[in-house]
Protein: Delta(24)-sterol reductase
Organism: Palpitomonas bilix
Amino acid sequence: LRSSCAIGVSLGMLSYIITNYRSAFALFCLTPVAGAHNLYLRLRRFLLARSFSLISEEEHSKRVEAIRREVKEANGRVCSNRSGNDQMSLTYGDYKQKSKKVNLTHLRSVFEVNEKERYIWVEPMVDMGDLTSLLIPRGLTLPILPELDNLTVGGLLAGTGIETASHIYGLFHHIVQEIEVVLADGTVERVSRTHKPDLFQNIPWSYGTLGMITAVKIQVVPCKPYVKLNYEFIHQKSEFIAKYEKACRDQSHDFVEALAYSHDNYALMTGKMSNDVGNDGAYNPIGRFYSQFFYLQVQDKMRKCNSCVEYIPLKDYYHRHTKSLFWEVSEIMPFAHTWWFRYLFGWMMPISHSLFKATRTEELTKLYKEKHIVQDMIVPIGTLGDCLSKMNDLFRVYPLWLCPTRIFEKPSDENRGLICGLEDEDLFIDVGIYGTPAPEILKNYDAERDCKKLEEHVRHVKGIQMLYADCYQSRDEFRQMFYHTEYDRLREEIPLTKERFPEIYDKVYIGNRR
Ligand SMILES: Cc1cc2nc3c(=O)[nH]c(=O)nc-3n(C[C@H](O)[C@H](O)[C@H](O)COP(=O)(O)OP(=O)(O)OC[C@H]3O[C@@H](n4cnc5c(N)ncnc54)[C@H](O)[C@@H]3O)c2cc1C
């Protein structure tokens, strides 16, 4: 009894320290752990770049057979054994506790790189960091390579993925050509636009509720070593929206991104891949360990000029928000942008989202739920101005991430899947809002009430909420936002699906997340 009391007291102390001295804890504990983990990742990616980790298709099939057996022999719910800490959502889904965990985490290999026909076959736990290391040295890249290193292929397909090339290629599932999936009854299917197109179209956004993805065939495209990035700084909302829309519709830009630093201050960035560093702009390797966070570099430029040009190494460009976790790291470690931190500790960065999540105490989780917002809302371009005003009124959190995407599915399509664009508009903007509401808002802030207001607005404009974020909508409202007819039919028709997997809503609703 005495020893369990002692453990209880020590855990209480530890929790107190982590809660009240979060930034010191991050500096002295998380940063070195991250440094060691990053060394391992670098080695892994070094080997992957040299193909040592490529496996044969037979090896992959053996792994799938083991999963197939596990699913077939299961009783009740099943889910992936990926730890809740590793998942990108800020909260933990209750479904994990009630389900049998199927071993998917070892599905982390690539088993075909077809440079001639320009596709790769990868297992679902391969992440974006692995893929940049594998592909860029071969002069290839994914057409859409979502930002953070540890986003996985499975998560990006079952949830969604977006990047600054999405104004050309659409969302992550639009570059997927074939999906291998283990269904609830243990059958293995490879589905595509021509084979079982209804299942192929409904796996994206189904959040792992139609089967276990075991392999994905993804399109790849040639790339160049640098990005020529044009910055333009605009200090009026209506002028920004007009210029931004024009840039998003212009497919001669390889990349389009904007950051809103306030309701009236915007940085519009358009990028083009380049073979060389030209003499019309400065060379800026933003991925160096001592480099300032990218979003702060942009803000600094905005103070100094109206426009400028830079050349950035492609890999650095892809992962420009990784080190700063967009701007979340600055809230936890307010000193992370200072010169002393960058030069002394910068080489150990980034600290992964999982480490922050794994060391979050109950008090911090409560604080996050009540005083912090993390949402991505994808709205039609014509309604962007209203969405910015709504977010400014409700939260006043800046910067905002503005990333364009095409949604090719139309409401009238037979196989449209869970989401669709408008009949006459396929250009949408993902508005990412991450941070603590402004002090004047925080006084009367109610996370549930205010997020519901935002969700209502997004439903009204026929927009979509990303699934990793907490959902405050009722089931009926959620079903208005996502088209469930085909999805429901598939869940009825594929034997055992309803027994093995919950509905999407039950995984994303805030009441079912801790
Ligand atoms: C801080 C932060 C930054 C982000 N930045 C970006 C960004 O830059 N770009 C972007 O596009 N998105 C971003 N996201 C959102 C991200 O796209 C989603 O969370 C996405 O689902 C990927 O997450 P994951 O790899 O951690 O997958 P997970 O969270 O592990 O999985 C997501 C869902 O997919 C299911 N799933 C995963 N693997 C499989 C499988 N093999 N078979 C069946 N189901 C499976 C899981 O059950 C789960 O329900 C961000 C999220 C956060 C919190």
Notes: The chain has a mean pLDDT of 91. Residues 80, 82, 87-90, 104, 124, 146-148, 151-152, 154-156, 158-162, 207-208, 212-213, 325, 353, 374, 468, 507 surround flavin-adenine dinucleotide (CB under 6 Å).
